[in-house]
Amino acid sequence: MTPRARQSAAAAVTGLGLVTAAGIGVKDTWSQVIGAAVPRGVRRPAALRDLPCDFMYMVDGPDVDSELGVSSHRLMARYAQLAVIAAREAVADAGLDPRSWDSARVAVVIGSAHGGLDFHDAQHDVLTARGARRVSPKVPLLNGINGAASSIARDLGTRGPSLAVATACSSGTDAIGTALHLLRAGACDIAVAGGAESMCSRSNFAGTCNAKALSTRTDDPTAACRPFDVGRDGFVVGEGAGVLVLERPEHARARGAKPRASLLGYGAAISSETSSPVAPSEAGIELALRTALADAGVEANDIDHVNAHGTSTVMNDLVESAVLHRVLGDGPLVTSTKSMTGHTLGAAGGIEAALTVLALQEQLVPATVNLQTQDPRVPVEVVTRTARAARLGCATTTSLGFGGHNAALVLARD
Predict the structure, then answer these.
(1) Nearest Cα to Cα of residue 197 among 173, 229, 232, 169
(2) Under a CB-based contact definition with an 8 Å cutoff, are residues 260 and 414 in contact?
(3) Is 103 exposed, middle or buried (0-12, 13-18, 19+ CB in 10 A)?
(4) Which H, E and C letters describe the chain, residue by residue?
(5) Rounded CA gap, 281 and 149, in Å?
(6) Other C-beta atoms within 10 Å of 90: how many?
(7) Residue 272 pLDDT more than 90?
């Protein structure tokens, strides 16, 4: 339950939108995630040919011509297209009509780690092969990390703050936390917030392979993402978008909206004490999580469920699970839905926040797919094989990003 002392500082989650490798739309994605099916959308793009990791989890579709219109989608990189589709679903799910809202009181905050990097890579190839005059004049527009936020704002006709957040794999979580701060500050009544990513970059994949962060289970890619499993060997890149509609509670009540959940708190911290920008740090994760709990006004034993960052890399899973156990104890049921969606980088926080809301609503914790034998060094209870029914009041979702960025959200059943 929402602590009475924090009610005025909470945000109502009134709408969700999802576009993932598990499914297009909230209903489709959730049914796949709780069904613990084999991950969908395994693709081997030509850009990744002959790399140690030549596959990723991609969205099956969508038909952007029919969804967005030819003239509109050509002014968006793919990650922005996915973001707009998810945002449209979230706004409709919230029962909002952009034609009648006060557009100056609507904010858009979207996180992404790489923006239009795939478009940039393609145009770099054009530059190298065909010369400068053949490079698209859309590079400045489609390459930027701000593209998803600005595309959503244009599509919905909003006039309030439109912000892009770039904190690597914490971007989506930090975007939602930033939106919470805007609502609390009175800068808006409604915030459309989350993350989006579509990164199929040969240079980025090659570098991440060399950093030993990606799974090289090329013989069985559907089983490659296996968070907390003793045989995990790295993460699988995914693409997608997850968007929440957040409102000031009094604004939602005034229009008769029934929230799906409440966003109670947010915490962020940098891991500056480590010399490696890619190694997770217990201190940074712990500070972000404790800050989120304090911001929410809840105790550690109030947390019933954690949608963990759970990337399927050896060190991330060990470090994160150690912190979760130290801060939250033995109580919460832990899962990593990346086992179904892949690691969607800057979109992960938005997608996982939406899935955490659904877990609270449905009182059901998704299983961590492909987890066959839990690493004995992982001290938390990870849900495996099938989704588990449970009494869930409060939940947290965590995000860890290259560069030392850490963030956490606390959500509660409404």
Answers:
(1) 169
(2) yes
(3) middle
(4) CCCHHHHHHCEEEEEEEEEECCEECHHHHHHHHHHCCCCCCEECCHHHCCCCCCCEECCCCCCHHHHHCHHHHCCCCHHHHHHHHHHHHHHHHCCCCCCCCCHHHEEEEEECCCCCHHHHHHHHHHHHHHCHHHCCCCHHHHCCCCHHHHHHHHHHCCCCCEEEECECECHHHHHHHHHHHHHHHCCCCEEEEEEEECCCCHHHHHHHHHCCCECCCCCCHHHCCCCCECCCCCECEECEEEEEEEECHHHHHHCCCCCCEEEEEEEEEECCCCCCCCCCCHHHHHHHHHHHHHHHCCCHHHEEEEECCCCCCHHHHHHHHHHHHHHHCCCCEEECCHHHHCECHHHHHHHHHHHHHHHHHHCEECCECCCCCECCCCCCEECECCCEECCCCEEEEEEEECCCEEEEEEEEEC
(5) 30
(6) 29
(7) no
Pairing of β 303-307 and β 394-401: parallel
CATH number at residue 288: 3.40.47.10
The mean pLDDT of 193-215, rounded to a whole number, is 94
What pLDDT, on a 0 to 100 scale, did the predictor assign at position 72? 74
Whether 139 has a pLDDT exceeding 90, the answer reads no
- Residue of 66, 90, 336 lying closest to 196 (CA atoms): 90
Q: Are 141 and 75 in contact (CB under 8 A)?
A: yes
**Could you list the active site residues?**
169, 309, 343
pLDDT in tens, 342-356: 999 999 999 999 999
Q: Compute the distance between CA of residue 17 and CA of residue 339 in angstroms, rounded to an integer.
A: 19
With a cut of 50, say whether residue 379 has pLDDT above it: yes
CA distance 112 to 169: 8
Range of the domain at 71: 4-413
Q: How far apart are the first and last CA of the chain?
A: 7
- φ, ψ for residue 145, nearest 5 deg: -75, -15
Domain count, the chain: 1
Residue 1: per-residue pLDDT: 41
Retrieve residue 356's tokens: 């955490």
- Name which residue leads in pLDDT, 8 or 39: 39
Write down the residue that tokens 């409604």 correspond to: 190
